[in-house]
Design goal:
With about 400 residues, the chain is mainly beta. Helices cover about 5% and strands about 55% of the residues. The protein has an 18-stranded antiparallel β-barrel. A hairpin with a 2-residue loop joins β8 and β9.
Length: about 400
C-alpha cells in the first residue's frame, strides 16, 4: 500500500520528533506577522494528555478485556503570515501496564476488542489559507460534518480518524459551502494494522442554508470510491434539518444511498432520522428513531462516521447488519454546576425481516475540575436477542490540557 505520509516506526524517534515540536515554539500568537520566520517563531503549542481505562465483559469469551492507555497529543500551529498558517499534530498512544485486550494488532484474540493500539501517529499536518469568508486546507486534517453521522473523526478512540486531501469552506450571507476531496483515510487502527489507511477518491460536500438563528437546512452528497474495499463504495444524497422552537429542538434527516464506482453490490437504500428534545431547564429529555434501510441484501452504510455516537456505546453495530437497522431511543441529560450526566436507552430491530437485535443502556457522568482538567465515568450494557452477545463496557477517563 502506498503511503501518503511517512510512517514513524521507531518509538524513540517518535518521542524525539513529538518533543521537538513542543520545544520548537513558544506559546505566543500573532495574526499576520511580517515574515515566515516570525510565523514559525510566534506559533503556539498545545499538549493534551488523555488517560483511559476500559473494561469489557463479553459473553462467549472466557477472558475480559482490561485496557489502560495514555494518549499524549502534541499540536503546533504557526502564526498567520499572508493569511497562511501551518499545523502539525502528533498522537502518542502508550500502554500503562499490560495489554490485556485485543487491540486488533497485538495478537490477544482470546480477549474482547478495544481499538486503542499502542503507537504514534501523525494525526494532522496541513497548510491553511484563511481570508474573509474563504478557508482552504491542504494536507492531513480533521473533518467533522454536523453530528458526524456521515463524516467524523471517531474522537472517542485514542487514535483519531483524519483525512488526507483538500477542503474548501466558504460562507456567503446565510449560505455555507463545505467541499472536500479526500484521497486517503488515516484510520483509528494504528500503523501496524494491515488496513491502517484506506486509499480512494472521496468527495464530501455539505451546503447549508441558515434560515435564521433557529433553523438550518443542509444538503449533502458523499461519493465514496474505495480502492481496496470496492463493495464499501457508495453514493449518498441527503438533507438535514435542525430547528429550535423555544425549548424544543428538532433534528430531521433523510438520505438515499446506492452502490457506486467498482462496487459489486446492487442496491438503493434509505436513511431516516427524527429526534426531538425538550429542555426543562437543568434537564433535557429526548426521543428519536433512526433507520438505516436495506435493499437486495445490502444495508445503508456510513463508513466515515463517528459510529460510537450512534446505536449505543457498546459498539455492537459497527459492521452494519445486512437487514438494516431500526433504532428507537429515549434519553435524558443535564448539568449541575461542574457535573454533567446523560442516560440513553436503545431498542434495536432490523429494518427488514423482523430481527430483534436486542437493547442497550448507556450512561455517563462527567466532572469539570477546571477548564483544563475533566473526569469521566461511562458505561454501556448491551442485552442481545437474535444478534451478537451480551456485553458490558465500563470506562474511566481523565483529560488534561497544558
Amino acid at each position: 500500500m502506498t503511503k501518503t505520509f511517512v510512517s514513524l516506526k521507531s518509538f524513540p524517534l517518535k518521542i524525539a520528533i513529538a518533543s521537538s515540536v513542543v520545544a520548537f515554539a513558544n506559546v505566543s500568537y500573532a495574526e499576520n506577522v511580517n515574515s515566515l520566520t516570525d510565523a514559525v517563531k510566534e506559533g503556539k503549542t498545545q499538549v493534551n494528555m488523555r488517560y483511559r481505562t476500559e473494561f469489557v465483559d463479553q459473553d462467549g469469551m472466557d477472558k475480559e478485556a482490561y485496557a489502560s492507555t495514555l494518549r499524549t497529543r502534541f499540536t503546533y500551529s504557526t502564526a498567520s503570515w499572508s493569511n497562511l498558517k501551518g499545523v502539525a499534530e502528533f498522537d502518542v498512544v502508550s500502554l500503562i501496564g499490560n495489554d490485556l485486550y485485543n487491540s486488533t494488532t497485538n495478537g490477544k484474540v482470546d480477549r474482547p476488542v478495544v481499538v486503542d493500539p499502542e503507537g504514534t501517529d501523525l494525526n494532522q499536518f496541513y497548510l491553511q489559507y484563511n481570508q474573509d469568508n474563504l478557508k482552504a486546507t491542504w494536507g492531513r486534517q480533521r473533518i467533522l460534518h454536523g453530528n458526524q453521522r456521515f463524516v467524523g473523526g471517531v474522537g472517542w478512540r485514542q487514535n483519531e480518524q483524519t483525512y488526507d486531501g483538500y477542503r474548501f469552506e466558504y460562507v456567503a450571507n446565510q449560505v455555507t459551502v463545505d467541499a472536500s476531496y479526500v484521497y486517503n483515510i488515516n484510520r483509528i487502527v494504528g500503523e501496524d494494522h494491515p488496513v491502517d489507511d484506506l486509499d480512494g477518491s472521496f468527495y464530501l460536500t455539505n451546503v447549508a442554508y441558515a434560515v435564521n438563528k433557529s433553523h438550518k437546512v443542509t444538503l449533502m452528497n458523499y461519493s465514496l470510491d474505495f480502492d481496496a474495499l470496492a463493495n464499501a463504495s457508495s453514493q449518498t444524497w441527503g438533507i438535514n434539518y435542525d430547528g429550535q422552537f423555544d425549548k424544543l429542538n428538532v433534528h430531521a434527516a433523510y438520505a438515499r444511498q446506492s452502490d457506486w464506482a467498482d462496487s459489486n453490490l446492487d442496491y438503493t437504500a434509505d436513511y431516516k432520522n427524527l429526534e426531538v428534545a425538550y429542555n426543562f431547564g437543568p434537564v433535557t429529555v429526548k426521543a428519536g428513531n433512526e433507520v438505516l434501510g436495506s435493499d437486495n441484501g445490502a444495508s445503508f452504510t456510513t463508513p466515515l462516521a463517528t459510529l460510537h455516537k450512534f446505536q449505543g456505546f457498546a459498539d455492537k453495530f459497527l459492521g452494519f447488519p445486512a437487514n438494516g437497522m431500526d433504532d428507537k431511543y429515549i434519553g435524558a441529560n443535564g448539568k449541575a454546576k461542574q457535573w454533567n450526566w446523560a442516560v440513553t436507552y436503545h431498542q434495536f430491530t432490523s429494518d427488514e425481516g423482523s430481527v430483534d437485535y436486542g437493547s442497550e443502556w448507556d450512561g455517563s457522568l462527567g466532572y469539570l475540575v477546571n477548564p483544563d482538567l475533566n473526569l469521566l465515568l461511562k458505561g454501556a450494557y448491551y442485552q442481545a436477542d437474535d444478534f451478537a452477545t451480551d456485553t458490558l463496557k465500563l470506562w474511566f477517563m481523565v483529560s488534561k490540557k497544558f
